[in-house]
Structures are given as C-alpha cells and as structure tokens.
Amino acid sequence: LPGVVPVIDRFSGDPKLVLATGFSADGFGMGPGAGRAVAPLVAGELLSHDLHRLRPARLMDGSPPEMGPAL
Q1: Per-residue confidence (pLDDT) for residue 43, from 0 to 100
Q2: What distance in Å separates the CA atoms of residue 56 and residue 4, rounded to the nearest whole number?
Q3: N or C: which end of the chain has fewer CB within 10 A?
Q4: 30 Cα distance to chain centroid
Q5: What b/e string do you get for 49-68 counting C-beta neighbours within 10 Å, with b at 16 or more?
Q6: Residue 67 confidence (pLDDT) above 80
Q7: At residue 71, does pLDDT exceed 60?
Q8: Cβ–Cβ < 8 Å for 8, 38
Q9: Backbone angles phi, psi at 50, to 5 degrees
Q10: Helix (H) / strand (E) containing 37
C-alpha cells in the first residue's frame, strides 16, 4: 500500500465486513496490536484508538500518509 500504512476500517459496501490489511512483512509484529485495535470495531464497541489515519479512503482522497504512535 502507498505510504506503508495498513488499512483498518469497515468496508463501505457492507458495514458487517471489517478490513485489516496491508501490513506487508510487518504483519507478524503489528498483528497483536492491530488485533486489539480491531476487536472493538468487529464487536461494535467503542474504539479505544483513533483509526482515522488507517481508513481506506485516504488512498483515493489524496491525504498524505500519517505516521503515528504505535497501537
């Protein structure tokens, strides 16, 4: 993915589908943190992390990659 930042969000075509992809070779290291961040999204609970910078729309709206703190 551009910017080497994964995508984590609900799929706009079906809100029951959650995307968590684009981790490249870092997936093993980022997997546990990503799982903790995605679990509330899947369960329909309040998110404990701001996942806005990981939204898929950023790939189409021209937003620059936003690197941030570790999840």
Answers
A1: 93
A2: 13
A3: N
A4: 11
A5: bebeebbbebeeeeeeeeee
A6: no
A7: no
A8: yes
A9: -85, 110
A10: helix 27-43
Interval 1-59: pLDDT, tens: 566 788 999 988 898 899 999 887 777 788 898 899 899 999 999 988 888 888 888 88
Coil, strand or helix: which one is 52? helix
In the chain, the largest separation of any two C-alpha atoms, in whole Å, equals 30
CA 4 to chain centre: 12
Residue 23: predicted pLDDT = 86
* Strand segments (E) across the chain: 7-11, 14-21
Contact 70, 33 (CB under 8 A): yes
